UniProtKB/TrEMBL annotation:
Coiled coil stretches, renumbered: none
UniProt-recorded name of the protein: prephenate dehydrogenase
Enzyme class: oxidoreductase
Family matches, as PROSITE patterns: PDH_ADH
């Protein structure tokens, strides 16, 4: 059965490969707004994910066969870990419909583009995209239809991405509730290294540092964790496969941002050692300003 619509949908058939947190949130939004797509197929290589998506009734069809599932799609969305993009793209592109759009939600862009481009044919337009929204949870039960509401979706076209397909993917993400922005590929990876990848690296590391403390101190960390440490543990609870893939696929930008951060942390250490009050207060004030502007931009 297809979704009931009252106006021409952006896409007739959408196939989502990887209906986890991001993919299932997309499917839920389409279910709520059938002007996005008339018919949806969800594909996953984990039987338990297929089982849950069927139970949740968030797609018209659920399958474990990517090749069969892309044949009728006008738009195929890869919502899988960035390290799995190449293998899946290689498998599906030869079976996609002429004129169809291939897009993704991956957190790194240069590596995903490099992985997919060799398999593209002239009749498939690839529109790389990255919704800047998520949580520390993963899997189909973690998704929700308002996940992308008022968040940014960054689109990084390549030199061969058609203008018309970029426009369609922009409309698609706007229908998801997001604001869209076109960004240069390398610039995207640099920005995400500082606003997303480095904070996760710090969160994973601080939890490991706390865990490697002496036994009695470690148990106290857990007993008395105030909100500072607790906030780090939220993002440190994120999926290991997804984050291993992100770190290995945006190496240069992450290492550059980590080096800059290390220099700044050293400067702060020096200020504490020499009791440089001005430097310490100036640094803290900058943090407060950033928090205020996030709240003003409705991103906090
Ligand atoms: N979680 C976030 O906050 C967030 C935000 C924005 C973008 N992203 C990106 O979106 C993508 C999906 O992230 P997520 O959080 O939804 O992950 P998730 O783990 O919740 O879902 C990924 C799904 O892909 C499936 N999968 C993995 N390999 C597959 C394959 N070869 N074939 C078919 N299915 C496969 C998994 O079984 C899983 O159901 C990733 O590239 C991630 O970097 C994540
Ligand atoms: O909000 C969170 O918990 C997230 O981890 C979401 C988050 C982020 O770092 O902001 C994670 C990865 C993305 O690619 C985009 C968004």
């Amino acid at each position: 059965m297809t979704n009931k619509i009252t106006s021409i949908p952006i896409f007739k058939n959408i196939t989502v490969i990887g209906p986890g947190l991001i993919g299932s949130s997309i499917l839920r939004r389409i279910q709520k707004d059938p002007t996005i797509s008339e018919y949806t197929v969800a594909v996953d290589n984990h039987p338990e994910v297929c089982y849950r998506v069927k139970k949740l009734k968030i797609a018209n069809k659920v399958s474990s066969d990517p090749v069969e599932s892309v044949k009728n799609a006008d738009c195929v969305i890869l919502a899988i870990p960035v390290g799995a993009m190449q293998e899946v793209a290689k498998q599906i592109i030869p079976h996609m419909k002429k004129g169809a759009i291939l897009t993704d939600t991956g957190s790194t862009k240069a590596s995903v583009i490099a992985a997919i481009t060799p398999y593209l044919t002239s009749d498939i337009s690839f529109v790389p995209a990255h919704p800047m929204a998520g949580t520390e949870f993963s899997g189909p039960d973690a998704g929700f239809e308002s996940l992308f509401e008022n968040r940014w979706c960054l689109i990084t076209p390549t030199t061969s991405t058609g203008k018309e397909s970029v426009y369609k993917i922009e409309r698609f993400w706007q229908a998801m509730g997001a604001n869209t922005r076109i960004l240069d590929i390398r610039h995207h990876d640099k920005i995400c290294a500082i606003v997303s990848h480095l904070p996760h690296l710090l969160a994973f590391t601080i939890c490991n540092t706390a865990d490697s403390l002496a036994d009695e101190t470690r148990s106290e960390v857990l007993d008395y964790a105030a909100s500072g440490f607790r906030d780090f543990t939220r993002i440190a609870a994120s999926d290991p496969i997804m984050w291993k893939d992100i770190f290995l696929n945006n190496r240069e930008a992450i290492l550059e941002m980590l080096a800059r951060f290390t220099e700044d942390a050293q400067a702060m250490a020096k200020a504490i050692r020499w009791q440089d009050e001005d430097y310490i207060v100036k640094t803290i004030k900058k943090g407060r300003e950033i928090r205020k502007s996030l709240i003003n931009n409705k991103q906090a």
